[in-house]
Design a protein that fits this description.
Blueprint (H helix, E strand, L loop, with lengths): L1 H25 L8 E4 L10 E5 L10 E5 L6 H7 L2 H8 L2 E6 L22 H15 L7 E6 L1 H12 L6 E5 L17 H4 L7 H11 L9 E7 L8 H14 L7 E5 L3 E6 L7 E6 L11 H9 L43 E9 L3 E10 L5 E2 L2 E5 L5 E6 L2 E3 L4 E5 L6 E2 L4 E9 L8 E5 L2 E2 L1 E2 L1
Parallel strand pairs: 3-4, 3-5, 5-6, 6-7, 7-10, 11-22
Antiparallel strand pairs: 1-2, 2-4, 8-9, 9-10, 11-12, 12-19, 13-18, 14-17, 14-20, 15-19, 16-17, 20-21
Length: 450
């Protein structure tokens, strides 16, 4: 079994190594703070390692993110190969990078001990790490989040199912539903699940999650899901099964509340609410087992609210599980507040923040509508500094890539109510000038900036 697991883990490693190699070039070449290994952090039945990244500037009560690596990966490798640390520098949250100590460096997501609240495997190790940060770094227990890629994405689903009392939200890049990989063994490989051949009703998938901690009746963590349509390592069919599972657990409809396109080829669907979704899903056209791509980490951080935005509270589960024989396995979403029609001639305000490294940067921009009528359809014009070229964007389309550009709403965020706001962001390359854009105009009207 171990020989077979190592071979299969090698397949996973080959599939993701190219993508993470690209991301290393985009990540900061150095940080003022450094990654530190923590030993003796508490109960550790899976014998995992703990690496901790604490930015130099954090608030008195910082949020905590756990970022889990893929098969054959390591905590330090996931730190240097993704954009999460640079975002932590910018926004002041702490990151735990756990390190698996299993065959093939894969996380245990297949044993009974891994799929049980307070079990005896890797998930219990990670909760000990979180508790360590809460106790030794004054971490905020009300703002703990989880993300991961491939095996780490599988672990994301597992952690949200095992410990809804610990985690407020999670973002899984190329994962599978909770319990899909079950084999009853620690180093098991579930080929049927990996190949996308495991399908259940939403109710059955939800029951697996609820069964991990059957005494729990509190709010459940929100979930963001990412998957490439050409993924042959963990088949794309798992993306739809994850949506079935988490919409059932969170008590929202499987019918999207909004559908749009981000960055040209990322289909974005939301469930439960178009603006504050319980389940937030991104299908990446034509891409294989190589997520997260550039810019995706910032979208996950925004979903968590770690970029200064205000996330919705954790979702309360349905009062009782929906009967399996119901024609719909979850209630319909609440309708979004209606927006009055209006133009873009009212006053507007723009706030923006830049996080830069050697040759790249990310920027988040918030537009506030200070007029007395709603805006339905917005175009924000601005001028990029010389040498900056946009390479990706989220929650807007941007054209052209340099010079005087225009950001245009996507289908799900066209309306800005009177007194309300909307946010979008982009990643750009630069040749030394990482300054913020200038000359903001909303639908042709100049905006104040600050």
């Amino acid at each position: 079994m171990k020989k077979r697991t190592r071979a299969l883990a090698a397949v996973l490693s080959a599939a993701v190594s190219a993508a993470f190699g690209l991301l290393i070039a985009l990540a900061p070449s150095a940080h003022a703070a450094s990654l530190v290994q923590i030993t003796n952090f508490g109960s550790n039945p899976g014998n995992s390692k703990m690496y901790l990244y604490v930015p130099n500037n954090v608030p008195a009560h910082p949020a905590i993110l756990v970022a889990a690596h893929y098969c054959t990966g390591t905590g330090p490798g996931f730190y240097s190969g993704t954009e999460f640390a640079s975002l932590a520098d910018r926004y002041g949250f702490i990151i735990i990078y756990p390190d698996a100590n299993r065959s093939g460096q894969c996380w245990d997501v297949s044993s009974n001990g891994a799929l049980t609240h307070n079990g005896n495997s890797d998930p219990a190790d990670i909760v000990s790490m979180v508790q360590y940060v809460e106790q030794h770094n004054n971490g905020d227990s009300s703002r703990v989040y989880f993300t991961g890629a491939s095996s780490g994405a599988m672990l994301t689903d597992v952690m949200l199912g095992d410990y809804p009392d610990v985690f407020k939200a999670g973002a899984a890049f190329m994962g599978v539903p909770f319990h899909c990989f079950y084999t009853g063994t620690v180093d098991g490989w579930n080929s049927a699940c990996a190949n996308g051949q495991v399908s259940n009703t939403p109710q059955a998938w939800g029951d697996y999650v609820r069964g991990a901690d059957p005494g729990y009746s509190g709010p459940r963590p929100r979930v963001q899901l990412w998957h490439g349509t050409a993924d042959t390592t963990l088949n794309y069919n798992n993306f739809g099964e994850e949506i079935k599972q988490w919409t059932n657990v969170l008590g929202v409809s499987q019918t999207p509340s909004s559908t749009g396109t981000v960055n040209g080829s990322w289909t974005h669907t939301t469930y439960g609410s178009a603006t504050d979704p319980a389940v937030d899903a991104y299908s990446i056209a034509g891409v294989g087992h190589q997520l997260p791509l550039s810019g995706m980490a910032a979208i996950a951080i925004h979903f968590f609210g770690l970029d200064g935005s205000t996330p919705p509270p954790p979702s309360s589960p349905p009062a009782s599980p929906t009967p399996s024989n119901s024609p719909s396995n979850s209630p319909s979403p609440s309708p979004s507040p209606s927006q009055s029609s209006g133009g873009g001639s009212g006053a507007c305000h723009v706030s923006d923040s830049v996080s830069a490294w050697n040759t790249g940067l990310t920027e988040n921009i918030t537009i506030t509508n200070n007029s007395t009528s709603a805006i339905n359809g917005w175009r924000l014009g601005f001028t990029l500094p010389s040498g900056q070229t946009v390479v990706s964007a989220w929650n807007a389309t941007i054209s052209p890539a340099s010079g005087s550009v225009t950001a245009t709403n996507v289908s799900y965020n066209a309306a800005i109510p009177a007194g309300g706001n909307t946010s979008f962001g982009f990643q750009a390359n630069h040749t030394g000038n990482a300054a913020a854009p200038t000359g903001f105009t909303l639908n042709g009207t100049a905006c104040s900036v600050g």
